Amino acid sequence: MNLESVVLRPVEESDLEVLSRFDAEPELAGSSWYGFRDAGRQRRRFHSDGWLGDEDGKLMVTADAEVAGFVAWASAGHGAGRYRSIGIALLPGWRGQGIGTQAQRLLCQYLFAHTAVQRIEAGTQPENVAEQRALQKVGFTQEGVLRSAEFRDGAWRDVIVYGLLRSDRLADQP
Ligand SMILES: CC(C)(COP(=O)(O)OP(=O)(O)OC[C@H]1O[C@@H](n2cnc3c(N)ncnc32)[C@H](O)[C@@H]1OP(=O)(O)O)[C@@H](O)C(=O)NCCC(=O)NCCS
């Protein structure tokens, strides 16, 4: 698999079944599983704005023209200083090949190109070594640990916060 074949594109109707699986199958979300979600929201939102809103959005990640997963973003912060928080989930068969790193790099390039934000943030779990490493490879800096910031799988858990500023250097290569 050539990483140059990794592309972000808008959600299409044919993607809705795959997206719904991330709401219904715990093993797909891994350490980001927070319980079942209304999988119908994927279709309703798609028919509302194609998952491309002013406040949040979602793009599909494809590799070799096949669906590998999705990336998402949402507004965070306050007033004129609002920034973007990003997330990603790949289907298990596409993990560990550099796609997660490349897709988040492409998403940051996209957000810096098409929004005026100064800052992009990503939070992940202490045990999610792959995501921490992927963010570091994109150019994110670990900024701190939010203690007991999420309730998941029966316990309060820490969240590690990473940040990338417009003025930081986006790493070019995986
Ligand atoms: C987290 C995720 C996006 C990472 O994407 P990926 O394509 O699997 O990761 P990459 O192949 O780009 O690898 C990035 C780095 O993590 C390392 N890595 C990959 N899988 C790993 C694993 N299971 N354990 C430890 N390190 C791992 C890679 O070796 C690489 O580091 P290196 O270059 O120093 O060797 C992907 O695994 C995923 O979708 N996981 C499930 C959902 C999830 O956790 N989303 C993030 C929620 S915060």
TrEMBL record:
<dbReference type="Pfam" id="PF13302">
    <property type="entry name" value="Acetyltransf_3"/>
</dbReference>
<dbReference type="InterPro" id="IPR051531">
    <property type="entry name" value="N-acetyltransferase"/>
</dbReference>
<feature type="domain" description="N-acetyltransferase">
    <location>
        <begin position="6"/>
        <end position="167"/>
    </location>
</feature>
<dbReference type="InterPro" id="IPR000182">
    <property type="entry name" value="GNAT_dom"/>
</dbReference>
<dbReference type="GO" id="GO:0016747">
    <property type="term" value="F:acyltransferase activity, transferring groups other than amino-acyl groups"/>
</dbReference>
<protein>
    <submittedName>
        <fullName>N-acetyltransferase</fullName>
    </submittedName>
</protein>
<comment type="similarity">
    <text>Belongs to the acetyltransferase family. RimJ subfamily.</text>
</comment>
<keyword id="KW-0808">Transferase</keyword>
<dbReference type="InterPro" id="IPR016181">
    <property type="entry name" value="Acyl_CoA_acyltransferase"/>
</dbReference>
<keyword id="KW-0012">Acyltransferase</keyword>
